């Protein structure tokens, strides 16, 4: 399918959006990583403060990698990249607080987070192996295998769509608590936090659109093949 010009008609627009979004989140993070916060809090301290404010009892630890920040609901651990964990910038408190927002979601049993967590095993399997039945079905002209491949890929699409409200809600929680707790004290700091989190949100939107476009292409090709039969 990757040599099919029609495929690129489906996926090229979201692919370009994804490249632009990835570039923007890095440039925005780096821009506001140079802007210190008046509270002088590190990203780790801000994350811990947001967790406490939301009633989440978690461990905050440093993890390697650039923007590798994430919350692990299984171990109740919030892992922050070095730039976020140690940084005392707008970018650091924004990302740290966002990940803390996921911890608060977990405590409050936010339904979309629970649904996404429940989908992880299926999505992990589907994202790795959906192409195998699709190719085998195409080679041996076995439509059930093709359908199985499409269904497995569809599971990853649902996962990415569910991720959107989870990420948006975490950002909204982060911005609210940063303001209420006096961590982001000025309008300029709050604006910077919104810019950093808004840029990050675009990457999730672009990823979801790319997956939806690929699924639409697969269904389009399958329906075309079925009609020809």
Automatic annotation (TrEMBL):
The reply to whether Transmembrane figures as a keyword in the UniProt entry is yes
Give any Pfam family that matches.
Zn_peptidase_2
Q: Keywords on this record?
A: Membrane, Transmembrane, Transmembrane helix
Q: Which domain of life is it from?
A: Bacteria
What transmembrane ranges does the database entry give?
Answer: 118-140, 146-166, 196-220
User: What's the protein here called?
Assistant: Neutral zinc metallopeptidase
In which organism is this protein found?
Saltatorellus ferox
């Amino acid at each position: 399918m990757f040599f099919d010009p029609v495929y690129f008609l489906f996926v090229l627009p979201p692919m370009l959006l994804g490249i632009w979004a990835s570039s923007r989140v890095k440039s925005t993070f780096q821009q506001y990583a140079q802007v210190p916060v008046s509270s002088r809090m590190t990203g780790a301290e801000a994350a811990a403060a947001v967790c406490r404010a939301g009633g989440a009892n978690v461990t905050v630890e440093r993890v390697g990698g650039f923007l590798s920040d994430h919350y692990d609901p299984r171990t109740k651990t919030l892992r922050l990249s070095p730039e976020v964990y140690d940084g005392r910038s707008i970018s650091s408190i924004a990302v740290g607080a966002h990940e803390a927002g996921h911890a608060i979601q977990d405590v409050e049993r936010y339904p979309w987070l629970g649904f996404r967590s429940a989908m992880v095993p299926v999505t992990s399997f589907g994202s790795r192996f959906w192409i195998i039945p699709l190719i085998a079905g195409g080679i041996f002209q076995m439509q059930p295998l093709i359908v199985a491949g499409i269904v497995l890929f569809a599971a990853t699409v649902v996962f990415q769509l569910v991720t959107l409200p989870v990420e948006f809600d975490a950002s909204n929680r982060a911005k609210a608590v940063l303001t209420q707790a006096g961590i982001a004290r000025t309008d300029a700091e709050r604006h910077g936090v919104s810019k950093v989190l808004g840029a990050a949100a675009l990457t999730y939107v672009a990823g979801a659109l790319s997956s939806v476009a690929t699924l639409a292409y697969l269904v389009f090709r399958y329906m075309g093949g079925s009609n020809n039969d």
